[in-house]
Every structure is written in structure tokens, then in C-alpha cells.
Amino acid sequence: xxxxxxxxxxxxxxxxxxxxxxxxxxxxxxxxxxxxxxxxxxxxxxxxxxxxxxxxxxxxxxxxxxxxxxxxxxxxxxxxxxxxxxxxxxxxxxxxxxxxxxxxxxxxxxxxxxxxxxxxxxxxxxxxxxxxxxxxxxxxxxxxxxx
Amino acid sequence: xxxxxxxxxxxxxxxxxxxxxxxxxxxxxxxxxxxxxxxxxxxxxxxxxxxxxxxxxxxxxxxxxxxxxxxxxxxxxxxxxxxxxxxxxxxxxxxxxxxxxxxxxxxxxxxxxxxxxxxxxxxxxxxxxxxxxxxxxxxxxxxxxxxxxxxxxxxxxxxxxxxxxxxxxxxxxxxxxxxxxxxxxxxxxxxxxxxxxxxxxxxxxxxxxxxxxxxxxxxxxxxxxxxxxxxxxxxxxxxxxxxxxx
Lengths: 147, 246
What we know:
heterodimer; A: alpha+beta; CATH 2.40.50.140; 4 helices; 28% helix; elongated; B: mainly alpha; globular
């Protein structure tokens, strides 16, 4: 074996070793690497109820209720299998709307998810407003002044 | 074999120095044209997005910067491996020259993403898989540069930093697949996806021009920086003295 070939094998060996180690580590920490839980996992009791977690899903159409005179808002998020009711007091991100994917951070209290932070999740689809309108998406076009 | 003679000739510093010098305008001019046209198309002629409005236009810098930071890392790691295996100093020079370019674009990607995330997601920063792995990429670049500068001896700096660059390659697929492996805040890719790009041509064409422009920009910057590396490494070589006199 030439020294050159030896070095080549050593580098391939390093890459395979580090790759395997990383794969095993990522697999082991899979749960910690999930950024949020699905409503199904919450309903099935897989999400811890004694600490703050994130729950992500689609805001169910027609579920958003705003309390008059306050910033409190309640809505239902779903993964189209199970759903979770969320209550939140505060400013919502621009992309928050019914039919939109969101991620809420907070705790479970008697089946109600009390959020202290709500983030909007954007999908990978981009299109001009006219196209969105003509597609009759469940999502309305962006209101004016939205950034 | 003709290819090998060509390759060996290219790996000789004086020859490469000349070729790279000649190539700079061939990369830089199309890069400038493509970036100007792509940015103009993205900022002016492309329609606003139905959800994000005008803010989506940051994609014309953010996505090409992200691409460049990954492509640059792969170039750096492959060059480092070639340098280690075949003991080609020029390959180490290319790896060393690439690191600051990649670091700059990784940072640009993080900053533009953060600026977009604040209005869209409602946060500047979240520790989700994509954001965290991209931050690690930035730190890998910084670590690579720091490790190099810790050695006085160039040969040892080359070898030690090459191992770091090669080990860091595992992060590249993690960045790409993070949004598919785990629930993440960051969306999946728009251009490379099943069913084709999720974007109309009016938005996509300027974006593709920016991708091509950024790639050529990397090639131009790499040529300039490798030439500087070669000058530094060969500062006592006779061909450089002749070049200085001639």
C-alpha cells in the first residue's frame, strides 16, 4: 500500500467514523432536536406536562376567538389527526392567520395549552397575490401594510 | 494520461498563479452582471408574495448566501482532503483561501435570516435544527481559521486544519436535511423539492440568476485569494523573483 493510498483510507475512515458517531448521537437526541411537538403527541401524552414545551400545527379555520378589550386570543391548532386548544395573550406575528402553521411555546393546563409566545411558521411556497386569489386558497391574501 | 499532466501542471504554483489571474475577469464580470440583474429582478420586477408581501425579497440574498456558504465548505473540505492525500500545497492554499469567504457568506445568511424572521416568524432567533446547524457551520469556519493561525509552521497548519475541515463535513447534510428530519421552524427548500420549485418563473428566474452569480463570485474571490496565498507561500521562490523583475 502506498503512503498516498494509506492517507486516502485514513481520511475515508475518519469521515465514516465521525459520520456514524454523529448519526448515532443525533438518533439518541432525536426528541431533544425536535423543535416542537405535534398535537397528536400532546393528546397521546407524549409531551411533558410539567415543563414548557412547543406545540406546532395549523390554526383551524374559524377557531380564532378574540376577547373584546384585551389581547387574549384563543384558537385551535391541528395536525389533521388531533387538535389542541391554545390560549395566548399578546401580539401575534404578521403571518398568524387561520389555516397558517404556527408554533406556540408554553405549558399545558387542564387540556388547554397556555402559550407565552406564538411564532408563525412559513412554508416553502411563494406566489404573487393574484395567483393565490385565483387558486382560492383557504388562506386570504396578505392585508395591505403587512411586511 | 493527458488529464493528469494537466492536473499536475495546474498544481504547480507559478502556472496556477498565471491561470488564476487570467480567470478572474471571466468569473467576476458574469458574476457582477448576474447579481445586478438578479437583484434588480428580485427587488423590482418580481411580484410581491401573497403572504409575506415585500419582505420575501430578502430571499434573493439569503438563499444564495446560504448556498454559497455550503458550497464553499464542500470545496474547502475536498481541497483539504486532496492536500492531505496527495500532499499538494496548492490544494491547502485553496482551502485556506476559501474559509474567510465561506464565513462571510454564512454570517450574511444568518443575519438576513434573522432580519426576515423577526417580522415573519415573530423572532430574531430560535434554536431549531436549521438555524443551529447553520450557526455551527459559521463556527466551523471560524474554528478552521483560528486553528490555522495558531501554527507558525505552514505545513502543520495545513494538516491540522485540513482534518478539522474534513470532520466538519458531517454538518453539511445535517444543515440540508434538518428541516426534513426534525420538526423545525425553518421551512423546507423552495427551489430543490419534489414537484419542482414552489415559485412562479417571475420570482424564480431572478433567484436562479442570483444563485449563479454568487457561485461565480465565489470563483472570482477564490482566485484572488489563492493568488495572495501563493504569493505568501512562495515568497522566497525564484519564479516570483523573476516575476518581480520581469
